[in-house]
């Protein structure tokens, strides 16, 4: 099933229109409940051995339009995971200091240490998305950045940082419903800004730019996953399943303790 | 009840021996269950308005001996809290780059932005604890640092960063049981190092140094809380209660939205 959402062909032009935001692979929330609970338990176990073994870093990139549920995904998928060795980095509009440097600098600075899992809520992909939509960079620059990003990710993977990239794919109608709900709730409407309305007008352009990202930045080393995100439960399920599968395949083990355990216990009892 | 665990007198010499690590204020786990669940819900609500209002930063400092449950406290108390605006910073042995600077540099660099809650798992207090126990600094330096730390915290509070300091107080017997459990579990014994045994030999010296910290670095602006931590449920309860009370007293409100909500909804429906 996962194959359907995985893009790892580099020579094909993908169009986001081919992907249904409300896809649930003919499953219902009830169908996956048991499996989802098990996945959560499994993830908590796996994260411990991942942290303990200190062999790899795991970088999880979340991208998506406003209201696609990047925050919600982090919150849901990572419930119960130990904060030790787990970080979330939010990348908002760059500061002058960040803009003064090359565009990979601020994100590279936050990539995970070995043993750690780091989620990027937005990432360097904004530097070929929002900037391109608003014509701060031209197409030539965008395509040159695609190549640089591919090289950068290949470098990370070669140096034991695993890269998982999730595009949370919602429909324009879904965004409208969410923005309306946001406006109507006194506890949520502070999140709303007129900029949201303005960005929404660029919806089609964003979809094109995302299609280019998927087509040009899906590599064997770091494929993109297009996650149907109109249904939150399905979004959480596919994201979690992908993370669990990725860590499981590493087949990690707890490091062995140095010294003799019984002797250490005796020593401990002495003082 | 909280008063019992709060140190906010600056002119008295405190001794850790006066505080019982297994204190539960004559309560049982069952007695507080309902209140605890409500506190958790309340905290999740409060964190949202804290983040939205962007008036204060909240710095939570956790200190304690090995096995005192610093990681566990973070994990338990913060279940369900949004990772947006919530950070945990672990301070281990300083790097050469960090040692090349003044001792407050690396922690100051990580203090919370307005709207954020940041937990320091260990902190600049290590620079008057582990360094003093092992005689890397003399008593004069330690006392001079106490004054500097007080001034630093006063400065933070004056600039809208709230500082909560929790000392997780365990008994020596409790630590022994925990270390034994750690050694006996194949999934946990990788955490054990001979250094744990060596540090344990300095137990009494650490208790003295902690007593000095409590006596000299409890201020009106930033008191220490001594949390009985032999019982995990009581530890979590008191820490959470203190955090909730602190944020509640700020009486924060969601910011008002700019513009007319009905007009914005109409605008939204147009595209």
Secondary-structure blueprint of this entry?
Two copies of one chain form a homodimer.
Chain A: E1 6-7, H1 29-53, E2 57-64, H2 70-77, E3 86-90, H3 96-99, H4 105-108, E4 117-121, H5 130-133, H6 139-158, E5 161-169, H7 172-184, H8 194-200, H9 203-216, E6 224-228, H10 232-248, H11 261-270
Parallel strand pairs in A: 2-4, 2-5, 3-4, 5-6
Antiparallel strand pairs in A: 1-6
Helix pairs in contact in A: 1-10
Please tag this protein with its features.
Rossmann fold; 271 residues; homodimer; 11 helices; alpha/beta
In words, what does this structure look like?
- The structure is a homodimer of 271-residue chains.
- Chain A has 271 residues and is α/β, with parallel strands linked by helices.
- Chain A has one domain (2-249): Rossmann fold (3-Layer(aba) Sandwich).
- In chain A, 46% of the residues lie in helices and 13% in strands.
- A 6-stranded mixed beta sheet of chain A has the order 1-6-5-2-4-3, with helices on both faces.
- In chain A, helix 1 (29-53) packs parallel to helix 10.
- The longest helix of chain A has 25 residues, at 29-53.
- The termini of chain A are far apart.
- The mean pLDDT of chain A is 93.
- At the A-B interface, helix 1, helix 2, strand 3, helix 7 and helix 8 of A face helix 1, helix 2, strand 3, helix 7 and helix 8 of B.
């Amino acid at each position: 099933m996962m194959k359907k959402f995985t893009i790892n062909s580099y020579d094909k032009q993908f169009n986001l229109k081919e992907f249904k935001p409300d896809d649930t692979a003919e499953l219902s929330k009830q169908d996956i409940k048991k499996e989802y609970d098990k996945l959560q338990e499994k993830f908590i176990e796996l994260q411990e051995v991942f942290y303990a073994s200190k062999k790899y870093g795991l970088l999880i990139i979340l991208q998506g339009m406003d209201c696609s549920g990047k925050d919600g995904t982090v919150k849901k998928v990572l419930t119960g995971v130990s904060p030790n060795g787990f970080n979330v980095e939010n990348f908002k509009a760059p500061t002058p200091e960040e803009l003064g440097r090359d565009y990979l600098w601020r994100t590279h600075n936050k990539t995970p240490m070995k043993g750690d899992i780091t989620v990027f809520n937005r990432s360097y992909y904004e530097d070929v998305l929002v900037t391109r939509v608003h014509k701060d960079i031209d197409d030539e620059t965008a395509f040159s950045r695609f190549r640089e990003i591919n090289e950068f990710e290949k470098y990370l993977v070669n140096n034991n940082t695993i890269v998982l990239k999730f595009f949370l794919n919602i429909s324009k109608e879904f965004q409208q419903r969410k923005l309306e709900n946001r406006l109507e709730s006194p506890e949520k409407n502070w999140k709303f800004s007129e900029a949201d309305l303005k960005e929404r007008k660029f919806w089609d352009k964003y979809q094109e730019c995302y299609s280019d990202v998927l087509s040009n930045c899906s590599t064997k080393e770091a494929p993109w996953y297009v996650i149907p995100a109109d249904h939150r439960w399905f979004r959480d399920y596919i994201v979690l399943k992908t993370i669990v599968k990725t860590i499981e395949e590493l087949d990690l083990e707890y490091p062995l303790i140095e010294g003799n355990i019984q002797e250490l216990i005796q020593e401990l009892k002495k003082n």
